[in-house]
């Protein structure tokens, strides 16, 4: 597990966050697990269209199937009346999240350092050289001992030798 330092804000970057389901689920998990430790999430994507959807935090109920039920009932508001069949992410979670347009293929803006970086299901769009460049560009933003997480169908084998494999899809920066 990532080390949580007393008094320090736990920072997570969800790169390629698409329409927000992934970073909001991570936000619910942090809110549930970190109790009094402050935390924040930067969620980024290249597409302004999906970022607009993500910022709204408003989804059709059918999109809730990947969110564990206890988190759904604790952190989401069920729509009623004209909003029947939808749900809204609670404001207390949304206020800790920053949505930004970032193209991982160009120089990154100053984002500070993160305890954990998620880069899931986006490298499928990149060739091997681009994957290497993208990961190399992101690594300076990961704290030592920080975790870099890809999806179960991805691997960083041959992409970087800086990160150490902890378990399938989870890497750590020494
Ligand atoms: C399949 S979705 C993955 C969403 C989420 N990470 C997940 O695993 O469910 C891929 C996302 O990558 C974004 N993307 C594609 N190329 C990108 C780039 N060069 N920089 C940032 N995001 C990019 C797309 O806009 C899309 O939202």
Structural key phrases:
174 residues; alpha/beta; Rossmann fold; 7-stranded mixed beta sheet; 3-stranded antiparallel beta sheet; 5 helices; 10 strands; 26% helix; globular; binds S-adenosylmethionine
Considering the protein shown, what is the CATH homologous superfamily?
A: Vaccinia Virus protein VP39
CATH architecture descriptor name: 3-Layer(aba) Sandwich
Beta fraction: 25-35%
Taken from the alpha-carbon principal axes, the silhouette is: globular
Helix percent reads 25-40%
Give a list of the ligands.
Answer: S-adenosylmethionine
Main β sheet profile: 7 strands, mixed
Short description:
The protein has helices spanning 21-34, 48-56, 69-75, 91-94, 128-138, and strands at residues 10-15, 39-45, 58-60, 76-78, 86-89, 97-101, 114-119, 142-149, 164-167, 170-172.
Structural features, described:
There is one protein chain. With 174 residues, the chain is of the alpha/beta class. The chain has a single domain (10-56, 93-172), classed as Rossmann fold. 26% of the residues lie in helices and 28% in strands. The protein has five helices and ten strands; from the N terminus they run βαβαβαββαββαβββ. The chain has helices at 21-34, 48-56, 69-75, 91-94, 128-138; strands at residues 10-15, 39-45, 58-60, 76-78, 86-89, 97-101, 114-119, 142-149, 164-167, 170-172. Strands 6-2-1-7-8-10-9 form a seven-stranded mixed sheet, covered by helices on one side. α1 (21-34) links the parallel β1 and β2 (39-45). The longest helix has 14 residues, at 21-34. The chain starts with 9 loop residues before the first strand and ends with a strand. The model has no long low-confidence stretch (mean pLDDT 95). The structure holds S-adenosylmethionine.
